[in-house]
Each structure stands twice: as C-alpha cells, then as structure tokens.
What we know:
Elements: H1 2-16, H2 28-38, E1 43-48, E2 60-64, E3 68-72, E4 78-83, H3 96-105, E5 111-116, E6 120-125, E7 130-134, E8 139-142
Amino acid sequence: MKKEIVSAFIALFSMGMFAQTSTGNLPGTAQNFIKQHFSSVSVAGVEENSNWKIWEDEKYEVKLANGIELDFDENGNIIEIDSQNREALPMTVLPAKVASYLQANHADAQVIGWEKQDKEQEVELASGIEVEFDAQGNFRKLD
C-alpha cells in the first residue's frame, strides 16, 4: 500500500513538472531575454515555483531543448543560466563587464554557467574554472 501511494505521489508530482512549454506565463522581461539570446532554440518546459518556494529568488525555470536551463526571479530578471549538456553559452547572455573581462583574460574559454546573487556573480567555464565577480561585474578571484 505504501508503495502505491508513493508511486502515485511521484507520478502526480512529475506530471506537473515542466508540463508547460509556452513562455506566455513569464514576465515580459524573461520572454524578451529568451527571444534575444535563444530565439533559435525551442522551449522544452516552463515551471513556475510559486507553489513550492524551493528557492525564494527563483520564481521561473525554463528548460530549453538544447539542455540549457534559465532561472528568472519574480520580475523576469535572469539570475542563473546552466548548460546541462555543457554546451557553450553565448557571451551576450552575460553582463557586459563580465563578458569583457572573460574576452580579455580567457578569450578561448567556453562559458557553461552563470549565476547572480545579491553580492556576487559566478561564471563556470568548461575547463572547470570558476570565475567570481562582485555584483557590479568587477573580477574578484578564480576558483
């Protein structure tokens, strides 16, 4: 009996996960970001985290067909980009100051992740190096 209840719960929960493939419920800022940087990639799923409140700052999660995941806050501002398949992200998704630093100091590096928090930003390179910046995009350190 326990097994059936757990199985039913998992099935019900997983049906709700990424059931939507339309970006229509996203704020305009998020929709514009996707159109500007990923117009050639189809959306595989859209999840609104308002019911679960997993992370307070992550309101919307968008999965793209190429394995890239985009997280947006409640206003539609991008807060995290993660390439699940290690596909390089376009440099245009990064803040200008961060992109300039990377082009000057890591010209051949492929960016596979970016995250913005209150006081810092972090870029993950395909080589495994993590580059940390302050909130304004000033270089802090390599990890």
